[in-house]
């Protein structure tokens, strides 16, 4: 019986060290060193491609990321559970990134960066957080944790999800019918949705125009959720004032892409958060224990929903 890892090899070595410490009885292999394919019971991958089809005794496929859209699920045999990453390291990173981005927008740092370039000393009115309405697209593991932190600053917080949610101190909206009401009260829109057929292209003209004039966008979901031409147009019109983009389509963003030069766009290379090897291994081992005990694993995705 063995565990196979197929993702970044540097992190793979860290996974291997943690496995050796906590589960020495389970041989840990780093792809392409598969060894005997029949021995592999568990696979952790960023993109498994066809690998799951070649391992006859595979029982579980883990995603090393929180998202699973990078999997082609049609190439993962139906009977195999697919489990996404739920671990505290990835949550903490996202909370930091989004808090910084929302605070940067809230405290006019885009405007001051532009003023600095022109050597302009011009204070802008300082608004309280309570008067800034933040709205989260996605109230899952990450969206909920981000909102918990933003509430501590005093922002007026809301969130939008597919099914109804209740979160203390957060105005919760659910489903397409509530989308306009959610957007109308949102000064800073943060996207933390999984990429599915329903969310592809969602961040486009229809959404931007339903926001209050001069709203800001923080996009940390997936690149294909954003219609770049619509964002550039909304920025041009002042409908969207600032955009913080951690994900783009494609990635890397081509050097000639107009987003790079836009003075009101800040780009980072898909680093808002990252799975932390030690806590990821702890989460995987916890799920293996649950699986062996016949219980549900944390993060098992619903293939029909796509997340
Ligand atoms: P979860 O699965 O825990 O939560 C997803 C949330 O999105 C849920 O609230 C869900 O609604 C909601 N949702 C899904 N589809 C729709 C829809 N069509 N309409 C409205 N709401 C919808 O995911 P996580 O919070 O763990 O992660 C979210 C995403 O963040 C990941 O899929 C990944 O794409 C991205 N990510 C980005 C990273 C980065 O570095 N940039 C790092 C990690 C993740 P409901 O509650 O009803 O199910
Ligand atoms: C993830 C990511 O989904 O890194 O974990 O984007």
From TrEMBL:
It comes from the Bacteria. The keyword Zinc does not apply. Keywords: NAD, Oxidoreductase, Pyruvate. Its EC number is 1.1.1.79. Residues 102-272 form the D-isomer specific 2-hydroxyacid dehydrogenase NAD-binding domain. One of its GO terms (molecular function) is glyoxylate reductase (NADPH) activity. InterPro entries: D-isomer_DH_NAD-bd (IPR006140), NAD(P)-bd_dom_sf (IPR036291). It is an enzyme of class 1 (oxidoreductase). The keyword Oxidoreductase applies. This is Glyoxylate/hydroxypyruvate reductase A. It comes from Paraburkholderia fynbosensis. The gene is ghrA_1.
């Amino acid at each position: 019986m063995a565990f196979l890892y197929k993702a970044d090899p540097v992190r793979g070595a860290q996974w291997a060290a943690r496995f050796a410490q906590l589960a020495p009885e389970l041989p840990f292999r780093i792809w392409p060193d598969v060894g005997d394919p029949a021995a592999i019971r568990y696979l952790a991958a960023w993109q498994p491609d066809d690998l799951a089809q070649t391992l006859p005794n595979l029982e579980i496929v883990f995603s090393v990321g929180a998202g699973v859209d990078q999997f082609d699920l049609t190439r993962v045999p139906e009977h195999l559970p697919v489990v996404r990453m739920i671990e505290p390291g990835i949550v903490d990173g996202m909370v930091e990134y989004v808090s910084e981005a929302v605070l940067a927008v809230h405290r006019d740092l885009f405007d001051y960066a532009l003023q600095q370039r022109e050597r302009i000393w011009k204070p802008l009115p300082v608004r309280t957080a309570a008067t800034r309405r933040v709205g989260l697209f996605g109230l899952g593991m990450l969206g909920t944790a981000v909102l918990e932190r933003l509430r501590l600053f005093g922002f007026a917080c809301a969130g939008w999800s597919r099914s109804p949610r209740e979160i203390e101190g957060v105005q919760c909206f659910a489903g397409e019918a509530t989308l306009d009401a959610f957007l109308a009260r949102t000064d800073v829109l943060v996207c933390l949705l999984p990429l599915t057929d329903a969310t592809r292209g969602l961040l486009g003209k229809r959404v931007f125009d339903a926001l209050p004039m001069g709203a800001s966008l923080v996009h940390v979901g997936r690149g294909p959720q954003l219609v770049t031409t619509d964002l550039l147009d909304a920025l041009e019109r002042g409908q969207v004032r600032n955009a913080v983009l951690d994900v783009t389509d494609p990635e890397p963003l081509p050097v000639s892409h107009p987003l790079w030069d836009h003075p009101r766009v800040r780009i980072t290379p898909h680093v808002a958060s990252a799975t932390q090897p030690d806590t990821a291994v702890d989460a995987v081992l916890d799920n293996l224990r649950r699986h062996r005990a016949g219980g549900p694993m944390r993060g098992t995705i619903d293939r029909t929903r796509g997340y």
